[in-house]
Design goal:
Aminopeptidase, about 130 residues, eight-stranded mixed beta sheet, globular
Length: about 130
């Protein structure tokens, strides 16, 4: 992923505790295929936290900081494949609510999008693939 042109080094974050790596996430560039061409947004993947530090807010802190940095860099929306029970707290909604379908046979409830700026996905209708 880092070798691709979609890697954004400033949006690859780590969490440390006393010099020990305890969490990591990346936001990379991805695209929605629309009738008018490609629409860029960010893909949140992976989010990882060491087992013994899960359910302590490490992942949430990483996501909040990554979203703050992404918004400051002018990015307007993020998409993720994951557990709605976790990602809904960050204002993710099913991507189909925005008119964005996935082509990877992932259940619709597990593909979610979040607008970093209001109405960023309002007129974006199309498909996304998580496998290139």
């Amino acid at each position: 992923m880092r070798a691709s042109g979609n890697y954004i080094p400033e949006l690859a974050l780590v969490a440390e505790d006393e010099g020990k790596l305890i969490g990591h996430l990346m936001l990379t560039r991805t695209f929605i295929e629309t009738a008018y061409g490609q629409h860029a947004l960010l893909l949140l993947a992976p989010v990882s936290v060491v087992f013994e530090r899960r359910s302590q807010g490490v992942g949430a802190q990483l996501i909040k900081e990554a979203f703050h940095l992404a918004k400051a860099k002018g990015h307007k929306a993020v998409i993720v494949g994951g557990d709605p029970a976790y990602y809904n707290r960050f204002d993710f909604r099913p991507s189909v609510d925005f008119g964005i379908a996935n082509t990877d046979q992932i259940p619709n409830e597990n593909v979610m999008a979040c607008e970093l700026t209001p109405d960023a996905l309002q007129n974006v209708k199309g498909t996304i693939s998580f496998h290139g």
